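If you are new to this repository, start here. Below is one unmodified record pulled from the training split, so you can see the exact layout before writing a loader.
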Amino acid sequence: MRAVWAAARAAVRRRRLQTLVIWLVTLTSTGAIVVALGLVDSASAPFDRAFAKEHGPHVVAAFDPAKVSDAQLRQAAHGAGVEAAAGPFAQAAVDLPDEADRELTGAVTIVGRSGPGGPVDRVDLWAGRWAARPGEVVLNRQPDWRTALGQRIRLPSGTVLTVVGYGYEMSRSADAWVAPAQMPALRPTATQMLFRFTDASSQNRLRAALSKVTSALPKDALTASQTYLTLKQQTGATARAYAQYLMAFGVLGVVVAVLIVANVVSGAVISGFRHIGILKALGFTPGQVVAVYLTMVSVPAVVGCALGTLAGNVLARPFLRFVFTGPDAGMLHRSAGIAPWVNAVALLGMPAVCVAAALVPAARAHRLSAARAISAGTAPRAGRALRLQRALAGTRLPRSVSLGTGLPFARPGRSGLTLAAVVLGVATVTFATGLATTMTRFGESGRDYDVTVYASRVSHGRIVEARHGDRRLDAMLRALPGAGQVTARGDAEAHIAGSVQPVMFEGRRGDRPRLGDVLTAGRWNHGRGEVVASSAFLRRHGLRVGDRLVVVKGERRERVTVVGETMETDGRLLVGDWSTFTALAAGEKPIAYHVKLRDGADPAAYARAARALDPGLDPEVSGSNSSAETIIGSATLLTAMLAVVAALGVFNTVVLDTRDRRRVLGMLKSIGMTPRQVTVMTVTSMGILGVTGSLVGVPLGIAGYDLVVPRMANAVDIVLPPYMTDVWRAGVLALLALSGLAIAVLGAYLPARGAARMTVAEALHNE
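And here is the target side for that same chain:
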């Protein structure tokens, strides 16, 4: 083995270019795959582990106590397909005003429960004790929340609750728990049941199981339900969206690595016939010769994979912090990380793939006898592609061009591998161009205003309200220099009747009620009782445009109709006009004013002027979409790296071709071929592959875009409008068609110039 290692080490030092290419492509593809697989794993695994530990409910269901009794619900809990159940628990929706020092604010769900344990939904009581008598409450908070046991919370009804404990459960079935004896004073409006089913593998099966349970109950007894899969989707949605395109780049990188490794080893075997013969003459067995070439590939591949794995782990950390959203995001991204199996796949899988790619061409060295290897020439076998080259010579093309056009056919195997690398480079550029265009349009879609002026600000831990009233502030903001259009926005946290999850009802008044929202279905609301909902909201609640629902805030109930769907990832958002908003949340004032400036106005100057109007105002200049910029930036970097790798593959092919054809080049130079003609001939040979690569690579990149981008949108529960995905214009396609030629010419030019500068004596020298 010592001799094999010495020969392989010498080959690595001698073939620096090939070593660099293998190292770079394995580093790039391994890093992308580590991040992608890490995101996929982290989007699911931490949630699954925590949910299983809590024995969380597969479905949280709310029933109308006026239509179904507790006894009927207990009986239904023993139905077919039910693994375990907890409840019935009385459930009340309470609306609390926002205050800086209040533990509970907005629309909160309070459930009467006798203890934290049970067959389903075991609450982690991490501070204090459970509420044992009326007047006590346990708050649902993550374990890192500041504890304030003994704090007193006054409800709108006058009831005072004292915080005696903090618990946490991921199902979000309640914001707080009290003793069952406390519930009559809170006037419960629903009865809660928590179910675990024997088959919880999909939304459809969970709905079918719940339907079977409720089939024996009175009609319309079930008022709302939510599955754990919805919560899981909310928590890891952004991670899965990022993973889609990173996985695409990782797979492309792996395929490019396989092609280039096979090309490098094939070229090394062909150009090293005499070296192989000498090794065998010195006593190397056929297996040892193969081991030399496999080791030559493995060294840079292992180094590249190790560095790529390290880089992937480093890059994954900020990605995980950035992409996790939802109520449990803080807990999850602390427990999320790159799983050991991901690192194992990268460290062991990628070198194995590279070695497997090298086996086929290396096997040729195994079959060669020492005498045949030493006596074999390095030029292509006689007669290969001669018929085509003669046909090209009879055309009116310049001789250097006709000769260059025929060169790829002299070694079809090597040319095929190079062509495949160019195809994937073009496909990568095409895919990234479409992705960047879509994400740019997505990022620009919400920038329908320039400055947001908030009607309050936080100073030293307390809320400072604006001194002026709503209408006065509206008029003052309109009067500032540069102001164009002003839209007031109010937010109110409410519930859908019977649901345990809060919704954010947003009312708008003024010049631009759409505020940059992109309508993907239906129409915009025109009056009271009409709302538009985000795509994520409709999907998570199983609603469609045209459906009706009842929104509840405290004692007020408003029946609304969904008339439109907007491209928005916030799964809690409902948007209505100001009359609907004030009917639901009487006395609420706008929390912000969105200002569209006139052309040429300075947003920063307007923000300073707005801040001077009232010490309670907090202006903020609209920024760019960070998610879109992150995707565009990372995709551009990965595309550039893979395009460079593809160009290096072309570079390697030209170097090998030049070495193979040294004597032919010497003879051509001796009969009068100029250095410029040598350059043109060599670049033309690769240009043919570049043009062909574009013809195949552009459609392949478009197919990849059509596969990945809808999956990214689906991961975050949005629907992209046609104008965001209609990215393939004639001009763009024409430029993309040139990308293959650019990759080929970029890779071929430098070695072509080196061949052109070679003297006749150097070219004709035998050794």
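Two things worth knowing about this chain: The CA atoms of residues 288 and 405 lie 39 Å apart. The radius of gyration is 34 Å.
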